[in-house]
Amino acid sequence: MITSKAIILLHTFNFIVQPRVFRDYDKPMHNITLCYSTHRPETLALTLRILQEHDVIVLEEPLHPDFHKALGGGVELEEHLLEVDSAYPVFTLGQYRLLQQLFKAGKEILQVEPYLDHLLSIQYFFAAEHRPDELVPDTPAHAVYRSERDATKNLIRYYQEVRGDDFPKILAAMNRFARADARRFVLRDSLRAKRILEVLVPGKDTCIEAGSIHLFLKCLLVKGLSSEWRLRIHDIDGEAVKMLNLHGSLFSPGDELTLDYIFGRSVSRKKWQLCCAQSLIYSKIITKEELSGGDDDFPHTRDEIAAIAVVKQLSVAACAALFQRIRSLSSGDAAELTAKYVQVKSV
């Protein structure tokens, strides 16, 4: 359910979603699949099965002039990905190798992420010695600039606080960043949904790639799609969890808090303090490096489920005590100490 706060944000960004109408059963239906997954190598095989069923694939990445040349083999992938500067190089290389196969098989592959397009343009604009006040007000680019400025300002404040020992101040800084990050996600999903609705072609089944936290995108598409389109949701992370016979979601406490703010839900002080405290420990114990494994091994899924289960048992006071003990440790050592702490407390 989209709350009134979220709707107000949409109007602020000049993105008004048209309501759906009842379907005329004489009209043909076109399929659109929103494929949610994390950017991990282990999700690629599951995702490939979904992509193969569609005519058009919409990626969650900014436009690049050599993109289709790279898919066609005109540019070496390793060379191309150096320019892309991905935060997940192993995943991205594996994904692009699969995309090359799909491209050769005749699939239409699009890069649709207007927020990042605007962000790159702004960076080039400033690199050419232009000033922020030269950005045209009330434009998507200006909205992106303000969104990034706000999020970056709050992230820096968090980095400053987390170096200190005042735990309540650290949590408050994290909460302010979560709010700013949520506003950024709303804008990002709004711009992307609007563009996706513009590029849809009737008669072509379309698959949209989306990171797991972009749940607001689904709400926007549901409201914006015409009656001829049938929207399906495919949760790759959920599928991996089921294959491992595990339970729970891969949303960390920090993700849950951000989603609350994205959807304009009321969050009590007690809740945001607990989410932030648990997130602080989670971010320390989770494995940061990209892990490789077989199609049915899912090392990241196992690691994330285990880390979330551990931190969910911690109170704010426990997180404060643990943070002082693990802040200088490696992720592996921090995870081991945290697991022992929880085990002792549960006896």
Topology, please?
Blueprint: H1 4-12, E1 30-37, H2 44-51, E2 56-59, H3 67-71, H4 77-84, H5 89-104, E3 108-111, H6 114-127, H7 140-162, H8 167-199, E4 206-211, H9 215-224, E5 229-235, H10 236-243, H11 253-262, H12 269-285, H13 299-311, H14 316-326, H15 331-346
Parallel strand pairs: 1-4, 1-5, 2-3, 2-4
Helix pairs in contact: 6-7, 7-8, 8-9, 8-11, 8-12, 11-12, 12-14
Let me know the largest β-sheet.
5 strands, parallel
Mean pLDDT metric: 90
Outline? globular
**Which band does the percent of strand residues land in?**
5-15%
CA-based gyration radius: 21 Å
Given as residue ranges, the uncertain stretches (5+ residues, pLDDT < 50) are 4-25
Element order, helices and strands?
Answer: HEHEHHHEHHHEHEHHHHHH
Task: Please give the share of residues in helix.
Answer: 55-70%
Structural class: alpha/beta
Count of DSSP strands: 5
End-to-end CA span: 41 Å
User: Widest sheet: strand order?
Assistant: 3-2-4-1-5
Number of helices: 15
Tally of structural domains: 1
